[in-house]
Structures are given as C-alpha cells and as structure tokens.
Automatic annotation (TrEMBL):
Organism: Streptomyces adustus
Signal peptide positions (record): 1-25
Keywords: Signal
Keyword Amino-acid biosynthesis in record: no
Record domain FAD-binding: where: 5-343
Lineage: Bacteria, Bacillati, Actinomycetota, Actinomycetes, Kitasatosporales
GO MF, one example: FAD binding
InterPro entries assigned to the protein according to its UniProt record, in alphabetical order: FAD-bd, FAD/NAD-bd_sf
Protein name: FAD-binding protein
Amino acid sequence: MTRRAVVIGAGLAGMLAAAALSTSADEVIVLERDELPEGPAHRKGLPQGRHSHVLMAGGLAAMEEVVPGVSMRKQLLAAGAHELSLGRDMVALTSEGWFRRWQDEGPRLIACSRALLDWVVRVAVAADPRVVIRRGRAVGLLGDAGRVSGVRVAAEGADEYDLAAGLVVDTSGRGSRVVHWLGGLGVTGVRERTVDTGLVNATRVYRAPEGAERFPMTVVQADPYASRPGRSGMILPIEGGRWMVSLGGTRGGEPPADPEGFLRYALDLPHPVVGRLIAAAEPLTDVHLSRSTRNDRRYLEKVRDWPEGLVVLGDALATFNPAYGQGMTVAALGARVLRRELAGGGVRAVGLARRVQRGAARPVDAAWAAAVGQDVWYPGTRGARPGLGDRVVTGFARRLTRAATGSHGAAAALWDVTSLSAGPARLLRPTTLLAVLNGPLLPPLPGPPLTREERRLVDTAG
C-alpha cells in the first residue's frame, strides 16, 4: 500500500500541507493546474492575489511549526516583508473610534505582497526532495465511499491518468469540486453556506514617499452598524519601499476602477487619512478590482461517514471576507492540525482524515463567526440576517471594541483573538470581562494617533 501523498493545488494552503506531509509520506506530489512563476509574481489562479494580505501572528506561529528546518519568519523578512506590531505599528479607525498605539507591542503580523509570500513558502517547501510539484489538473477522486485511494489527473497534451495515494489533500481553493467528487463516490449530504456582502476590492500599488517607507499600517474600517454600505481603506507597507492601497465597499458602496475615482473614494472615507497619504504618492500599477469576496463554507467535518484518505483544507474548506485578513492564517492552522495528527501514525492511519477534518474546523469556526458576525449587519447582505444570537454577540463585540480604544487590557484581548493567537475563550477571562465592563479608561482620540513626523508626512502629502 502506497505511502505517497497527493496535494491538489500549489497555493499557500497546498504548499503548507505538503510541508506537513513531508516528514510522514515517502513522496508528496503537489498537482498544480497553473504555470507557476519563477519569482514573486502574480498568477491568474489566485483571484485575491493582487490585493492586501496579512499573515497574522497565529498563522505565522503555525507556519513556523509546519515547515521543517526553516524559519519562515526569517525567510520572509530576508525577502523584504515587513513585521508589524498590532499595538505599535497600526493606525486604525474602527466603528467605535480610533485605536491607540501602546508601548506594549502586542502580536505581530507579516505584511508583504501575496506573490512574495507564496513564492517564499513555495521555494522553502519545494527544497525538500520528497516534495515534487507536477503540472496537472485533478478531475476526480479514486476509490469509494469508504476510502479515497488517489486522484484522476488531466495533464496538458497527454491522456488522463490515475495517481494512487495513501492520502489526498484538496487545497484547490474556492473553486474546489470536492463536493461533486464526493457525490461520485456515494458520499452525499454535505452542508454548504454562503454569506455575501457584495464587497468589491480595489487595489493600487504606490511608491512610498521618501521617508514614509515604514509608515504604520493605516486602516479606516467599514462600519457594519451604520445602516448603509460599508466603505473601507487600507495602506499596507510591502516589500520594495511600496504601499499596497486597498479600498473596499459592500453592495451599493463599491469603489471605482478609474484612478481619479479611486482617489476620491479614499478621500471620502469616514476619515481622509488614506486619501491624503496617497494623493501625492507615485502610482506604480493600475487599479485592480476583485469580487471574489464571499464567505463560503463546506461543513465537511459534519459528514457522517467521512472517507479515509481524504482531507480538505484552505479555501477549499472555507473562504472569508478578505477584509478581516484571516484566510492565510486559517490555512496555516489547518496545516498544523494535519502535521500534528500525522505524528500519531502516518498517512494511512485509521481515522486520520476525520480527525484532521474536525481539527481544522476549529479555527474555521472562529474565523467564520468573526467574519459573518459583522457581515450580517451590512444592508444588502445575502445568505444571512441578524438574529437574536447575533445581536447578543454584537453587543458584546462593540463594547469590547469601544473599551479597546482606551483600555490596554481590552485591546490585548482583541489583538489575541483577531490575530488567531487565541480562541474566543480568551474573551471570557475575568480580566477581559472586567475591562469590557469598565469600558475605555482614556478619552476618545479626536484623530489618528500619529507621531509628529508621521503627522508631518500626512500634512505634506495632503
């Protein structure tokens, strides 16, 4: 019986899954339908690839564990990525007011282009001789309802062929055909759900003005509770002395694709700081739009008779509104679950696939609750309306966020949960509940918490 593993998709989730498998399988074949770039370049199979991405602290910690013998943090920083502190290096306007910047740094995140991150991870994982990336498209699963035994592969310019595997991991993204494939094996009853705000992302890359290369990540968040379309803006410092500027608008408030409209939209946000900073910056790209922003979920962990030999991770399992920056971190946490479960018996261990699927559902649950819990409040959202439970949770979340604008204890709890460094239980600790009860201990800030030099840059640019 083969101890080969096959991973469908060579994106971030796929390469992390391959890394997790590399110490347990004799061979890991990663199937990828796209031609992969040789450097940090965009590829068409990644619909959100041109837009802002952050790797949260929880995802970085998982990634460090998953990729054997390599510090991904050091690799990313050496390639030009930025390491930012949520407490010190972020200027953020929330629905409850401006966050302060504290001397305590808080959890850190990695900021860079998605193309750079994917490339660095791919190079690190593919350096293992047990991992082979092969051009090909999975068109079906082999086996039956009890066990998946491989995949059917279509290769360009060649006949289809069968590829046997002791374990198949589907990381083929939001377009995964896994539910259809399972149906062909006799596995049915998969529950799926979609919550769609109609969000449109518009992104343009700029050269950071001289002296502003390390300007803090600047975010004007959308307000889900204002009974109007959400509108947001973000400046993310990335490699090469550049800013990636992403604007977002839910159904009825979408950003435009023309350069003049892009700037007007940024200036018309609830605070004009993003627009003022980019007004005099040099644009390096056109404006790119994306509508691949829905929350989609497949509840595979609830399938009664889950087959041996099949695991589904990353966007193939769940996708989230990208405004919340959770997707890459959830993918890394899923790969960590896979690695830990493999340590107990290898790729053909009895019950492995079900244990991984259930374990991967836990970070998905947390991210889904956070994303959908806000998205249900936007007018025009399809797939969900706020119920009594949503109102209770939202009331607590708003009080926590309001407290975090002027209470370090509340801010620390919020950082831990939003960075996926801790689960929702972190919010129920007595110290957190007391901070929420006390509310903000400092008065609200009248504007963004900038240093004197940062304020000078804003005034000069605007």
